[in-house]
């Protein structure tokens, strides 16, 4: 009886302790840094915030106004979204046929190619930027949006391709065979069977590619400057020798807010609309 009571007590404790521990970790890992980022962005320059003060003496929107009026941050935001959007579309177009081949065809050496496609992700970012920048310079694409988009696409294709390969592999062959037996053409099979089933993976790959492009600094700095400026290049300008935590916090929030909003919307969309559409085809 005591053992059974002890086991029940242990299960109840785990039921409450595990979620509590996760919440505490998330607060310490994300909540506290985010709170301090907001506070640093609102520090009044006439009342500097320093140790041992736990909170700023006075809050102000001075640094927000400074960033908006003196850094062309809105232009950088527009450039970031334009580059990220073009990168996502181009990555999808390049990754789709290869992902289908690796996911649905019995190809020799498919495992090797699946590993090889991740190579750009493990190479040092600055090294990639330097050598790729030299190549694009010889092609006359240095300092252009085209060069930056091509460079971002190189880093975006592995995200898109790896997720799409898994998505194609997960499509039940029975559905494809049933569509073929009913006389469906190749286009109809893709539109009615493959597309609804891989759509969640496509959205996931797109969001990873988009956010990765939005946050990419090395490639944009080496290839795009001084013509192409994005949010990360503006942010890193405050993280160098003249470190300005307050203004860096403002730019960080400007970069974070659209990405976080887009991620939350997409996550909700995947769980409801797309997954329902995919499962409705089964």
Written overview of the protein:
This protein has a single domain (72-280), classed as Orthogonal Bundle (MetI-like fold), CATH 1.10.3720.10. 78% of the residues lie in helices and 0% in strands. The protein has helices at residues 2-41, 62-70, 73-104, 110-116, 119-122, 125-138, 145-169, 173-181, 186-215, 218-224, 231-236, 245-280. The longest helix is centred in the N-terminal third of the chain and has 40 residues, at 2-41.
List the helices and strands and how they pair.
Layout: H1 2-41, H2 62-70, H3 73-104, H4 110-116, H5 119-122, H6 125-138, H7 145-169, H8 173-181, H9 186-215, H10 218-224, H11 231-236, H12 245-280
What is the beta-strand fraction? under 5%
Structural class, judged by helices and strands? mainly alpha
Largest sheet: none
CATH architecture: Orthogonal Bundle
Number of strands: 0
* CATH class category: Mainly Alpha
């Amino acid at each position: 009886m005591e053992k059974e009571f002890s086991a029940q007590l242990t299960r109840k404790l785990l039921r409450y302790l595990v979620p509590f521990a996760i919440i505490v970790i998330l607060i310490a890992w994300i909540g506290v840094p985010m709170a301090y980022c907001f506070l640093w962005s609102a520090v009044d320059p006439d009342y500097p915030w320093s140790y041992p003060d736990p909170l700023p003496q006075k809050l102000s929107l001075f640094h927000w106004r400074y960033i908006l009026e003196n850094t062309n941050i809105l232009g950088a935001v527009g450039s970031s979204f334009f580059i990220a959007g073009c990168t996502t579309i181009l990555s999808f177009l390049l990754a789709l046929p290869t992902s289908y081949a690796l996911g649905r065809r019995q190809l020799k050496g498919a495992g090797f190619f699946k590993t090889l496609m991740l190579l750009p992700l493990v190479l040092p970012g600055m090294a990639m930027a330097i050598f790729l920048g030299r190549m694009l310079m010889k092609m006359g694409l240095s300092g252009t949006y085209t060069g930056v988009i091509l460079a971002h696409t190189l880093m975006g294709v592995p995200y898109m391709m790896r997720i799409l390969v898994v998505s194609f592999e997960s499509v039940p062959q029975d559905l494809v065979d049933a569509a073929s037996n009913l006389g469906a053409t190749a286009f109809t099979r893709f539109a009615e069977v493959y597309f609804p089933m891989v759509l969640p993976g496509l959205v996931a790959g797109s969001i990873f590619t988009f956010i990765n492009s939005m946050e990419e600094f090395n490639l944009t700095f080496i290839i795009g400057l001084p013509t192409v400026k994005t949010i990360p290049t503006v942010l890193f300008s405050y993280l160098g020798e003249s470190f300005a935590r307050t203004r860096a916090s403002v730019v960080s929030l400007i970069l974070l807010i659209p990405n976080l909003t887009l991620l939350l919307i997409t996550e909700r969309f995947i769980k409801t609309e797309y997954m329902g559409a995919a499962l409705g085809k089964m």
